[in-house]
Amino acid sequence: AQRVTQPEKLLSVFKGAPVELKCNYSYSGSPELFWYVQYSRQRLQLLLRHISRESIKGFTADLNKGETSFHLKKPFAQEEDSAMYYCALKGSGGYQKVTFGIGTKLQVIP
Amino acid sequence: KAGVTQTPRYLIKTRGQQVTLSCSPISGHRSVSWYQQTPGQGLQFLFEYFSETQRNKGNFPGRFSGRQFSNSRSEMNVSTLELGDSALYLCASSAGQDPYNEQFFGPGTRLTVL
How far is B41 from chain A (nearest CA, A)? Predict the structure, then answer.
């Protein structure tokens, strides 16, 4: 069974402080990992995926297969980063089910 | 380009009824995915379609079904509604076969089951 764990429901950081949103997964094969973001009163957006290795809005995420983690990081938080962040995993082979974490609300304090 | 549109935006049904939700992808997009969002279960994946073919599905009972038409528009149907089906149903579209490449979401359909 595949599982995605986001241990923090709420993460509060001060503006300018580093941000790390944690995501751990459980999957026996080779997963694909994603981060989604939902700003207040806006549509859900795909923020980034591990295969693209991009930095989006200053955020990066590295897949660590040894620790089965895909933490989202940003060196300096901005107020506009306040949002709900969801980590997701897509399995491989056969029906590629997608599983989401429960989400972490990031609150950037001015 | 117009974004992903979903109709209706709000819907109220009673238990036992059935409902059909519609999703119109961005023009030229051929992949459509559906998700259910609830406060208790969070985001859950329902289906994924490409060129009228269902390629992936989540762990939902057979009461949940979907399809995609030749113009890439997609519908999902829920039969014999239960109170627990109350949720925001989201669809997303993307251009190519990879549903997660340039994926854009619609505003959702808020379904309330009484």
Answer: 7
Interchain contact B53–A (C-beta under 8 A): no
DSSP reduced 3-state for A101 = coil
The whole-number pLDDT of residue B98 equals: 80
For A48-68, what is each residue's pLDDT tens digit?
Answer: 988 777 888 999 998 998 999
Residue B97, classified by CB atoms within 10 Å of its CB into exposed (0-12), middle (13-18) or buried (19+), is exposed
> Least CB-CB distance to A43: which of B43, B48, B105?
B105
From B113's Cα to the closest Cα of chain A, the distance in A is 23
**Which of B43, B48, B105 has the CB atom closest to A45's CB atom?**
B105
Percent of chain A with pLDDT over 70: 97
Paired with A56 in beta bridges are A59
Q: How far is CA A109 from CA A13, A74, A78, A80, in A?
A: 6, 15, 9, 10
pLDDT number for residue A94: 63
Report CA Rg, chain A. Answer: 14
Assess A91–B contact: CB distance below 8 Å, yes or no: no
Q: Is B28 on the interface with A (CB under 8 A)?
A: no
**B102: how many CB neighbours lie within 10 A of its CB?**
14
